[in-house]
Amino acid sequence: MADGTSLWPVAGGGSLWPVVTGAFIAAGLAHAALQAYSIWALRRADAALHDPATTPPLDDAFRTAADAVALARTGLWSYLACFLLWLLLTGATATRLGLDRRAALRHWTILVWRIALVPTLTLAILNDHLSPTWPAAHAALAFAVFHLLTTALLLAHTTVVRRRLRPFFPGPS
Q: Mean pLDDT, 10 residues at a time, over the chain (173 residues)?
């Protein structure tokens, strides 16, 4: 805090909020890399389907894509749970610092994230129940792209809020 004390002290005299925020950003970057892998695996499976002679075996490509999509879906729910915890911790931190919680957390990225979350969650839930006219691979690819977009928006929002609250904590920026 500005008076030299810290919220939720950790070993070494630091504060828990910057550590949790840094960990959340690192997890977001890892999560985005997982989504990029999922997109690569889906495109690879699509290429194997259309031109089996020039790509890896069809079974291998589909198995890799299915595993990547399942991992990305699990990652979505896990990352949303982590975001909720980070959001609650950040709101409590802003309040303890004497800041307006809503003003500290307000940014256009969170509004766009909420809008983009609707198709992301819809595709995550309904992906297996779509009509045959829209192939499952295309739905999975659309899910992966929206998922990557929502993760990028969360990372941008987290970075903005971190920059807003960071001056209240002692230590290196």
A: 48 68 90 88 78 68 78 81 90 87 89 85 68 61 84 92 85 58
Beta strands in 15-168 (DSSP E): none
Residue 61 CB contacts under 8 Å (≥ 6 apart), including other chains: 41, 44, 45, 47, 48, 49, 55
Contact in structure between 150 and 117 (CB atoms under 8 Å): yes
Structure tokens at 88: 């609650």
pTM exceeds cut of 0.90: no
Is residue 154 a contact partner of residue 107, using CB atoms and an 8 Å limit?
A: no
- Distance set, CA 123 to CA 17, 78, 134 (Å): 33, 17, 12
Q: Please state whether 153 falls in left (phi above 0), alpha (psi between -120 and 50) or beta.
A: alpha
The Cα-based distances of 133 to 128, 129, 136 in angstroms read 13, 12, 9
